[in-house]
Amino acid sequence: MRQEILEMGRKAREAAHQMGMANSDRKREALEKMASALDQERLSIAAANRKDVEAAERKELGKAKIDRLTISEKVLEEMIDGLKEVSLLPDPVGEITRMWTRPNGLQVGRMRIPLGVIGIVYESRPNVTVDAAALCIKAGNAVLLRGGSEAFHSNDCLAGILRKALKEVGLPEDAIQFVQTTDRQAVLDLLGLEEYVDVMIPRGGEDLIRFVAEHARMPVLKHYKGVCHVYVDSDADMQMALNICLNAKAQRPGVCNAMETLLVHEAIAPVFLPKMAEVFKTAGVELRGCEKTMALIPGCKAAVEDDWYAEYLDLILAVRVVPDMGEAIRHITKYSSQHTEAIVTANFERAHRFVREVQSSLVLVNASTRFNDGFQLGLGAEIGISTSRLHAFGPMGVEELTTTKFIAFGNGQLRS
Amino acid sequence: MRQEILEMGRKAREAAHQMGMANSDRKREALEKMASALDQERLSIAAANRKDVEAAERKELGKAKIDRLTISEKVLEEMIDGLKEVSLLPDPVGEITRMWTRPNGLQVGRMRIPLGVIGIVYESRPNVTVDAAALCIKAGNAVLLRGGSEAFHSNDCLAGILRKALKEVGLPEDAIQFVQTTDRQAVLDLLGLEEYVDVMIPRGGEDLIRFVAEHARMPVLKHYKGVCHVYVDSDADMQMALNICLNAKAQRPGVCNAMETLLVHEAIAPVFLPKMAEVFKTAGVELRGCEKTMALIPGCKAAVEDDWYAEYLDLILAVRVVPDMGEAIRHITKYSSQHTEAIVTANFERAHRFVREVQSSLVLVNASTRFNDGFQLGLGAEIGISTSRLHAFGPMGVEELTTTKFIAFGNGQLRS
User: Fold this and answer.
1) What is the ipTM of this complex?
2) Helix (H, G, I), strand (E, B) or coil at A148
């Protein structure tokens, strides 16, 4: 364990203790100050970002990676707006979620408190530095940030600006710390800080997430991938089903809440699938179908077993015709990543059963899978989506960055 | 990975899926059937238990261990009553904890669902087999049980009776599985079943818990120890403080919610401590004090640094006089295990501040630390106490054996 990482952990624990007692006004003030500081420091942010972008260009990292790395005017505005939005969210800390009275007169309740110290290990987008730090601060936590080496100068510059804002309003600057070395050993050291870090949240590709889950000594909140399904029931409204499937697949195919497999009831398939194939053809979606699908859509490729497990993140879709909803649910139970599944139906009983029996982080009736996102569901902003069930299942907002302690008010109660 | 343990995991996952859809009546029926089956099988339980007790006697395991191992009539009655109690608890599964409507008309809510498969690794008391299985079943989970080798025959017999009851009401018997080998490798195999076990709960001594936390590949809900504090404020009611301190220390000293360190405000110490010392002397409590304490209590031993960290689980108490409440909170923040802390005071402002600033799983005002227990706090029954903050902090009842998924009801909403 390197001494400097250990020291960061110690400072974070101390800062977390102070942050946990900070009142809502102070935290809101800090977030507003961060927003105005990013606005004022446009030049230094641009200069730091240029170093990263130039290095990426020299290394020929490719256009997509360089795009993600670049802090354009628009990206900066989004960071500033994000800070303002988070500043306006209600403070979850101190909320007493329930309170009841025991037969002996003891009043017992649960009070929301911060989780403590949160570690974030992430890849290229520098906006994560700002977005993640904002949510952690709002919920009264301290955060240790470890960004990708390609964005080192940008992240370091952004973290420095945020730290200064904390200090200016009288909060501990060490509530936001950025790991200043880019080697992989520093990540391993961070993942070993079980005494000082309460939870680790990886943000990035599946490889990064698996690496963090493998090596972390503290709990990890994560999702590996989103193999999301839409089931079009025999009683679906045809136009609604066409709209939802197009939106779920093609509105933004490269994200985890996009549809990857379409399941269609055999009674509606002969009418629905040819129409759907037309729509998908126009949208440039490649289909890979089961035998019945291939019989209904001329020229459709055959799906193999691997297609049912695939997260394409692209304009490709696996399609299967099922004899009934029971088989659709069995397919989902076997192949889904428990991220997001939707049913399109006008039938109350089947909608009711689908919601009860499908155990994914979001189950929708008659709406697009693309809604599995903290902002879209009304959580305000999200720090990620969890597909493991412990602590958080689904999008994680400020509330998921807290826990509850029990409190009890008595007048001398003793245990007998 | 041994094949039979892997197979248990597979069966548990399948059983968990069915349990998650079981309705409340069926689960209640199963628990009632388990209670009557234990009643009817008294002879076979006694015979199995005799094997374990006789083996323990041959190995000369000591009276305390043999007592814990023995299923007396009283212990059996408690197991039966426990099953009946759990059967009557409200079913947490399916509860919609909140529901709201988005501006686009999408109704979004959170619905309580089971965690899935729960692993329990525990030591000698065979009642854990029954108590833990009951709570897991109530919350719609499957459970994998691994008890201590000394109680093998008792646990195996009890688990067999519970499985039969599940089958008789039409629920999958594999929702309760008992690991039938006693070697340590089986525990390691179980702790490696990350694909099939959603959470592991160790029950036993600190060594067992550390072993599980070290080797488990899935999340672990645990507490290592309880170094619980009572702070007697300058404005404490003298008699209430005496009663609470005696109850917290001596009512049952061998448990995790017993007081281990007493902090006393210096303004009240000269009157309070000599009286308290009298009471503790009568109760047979040995005191280890700071210098100021020693000056007020003739014959009091000196506390050394290790005493402030100690979980005595015995009639021993560390005592420190503090200049103010701030110092009491700093002491707690440094030495406490975040289990349970109490303040005794008549002062509203200090009670309010203590509750806000002390971040332990239960913070009490004017009541004994001994109340940190699921049954005492009104949760019905508990599967353990968590002192790590993720998912659960404090006693864990049936609700803590569940999670929530998001649900959404729409009429064709698309993401734009």
Assistant:
1) 0.93
2) coil
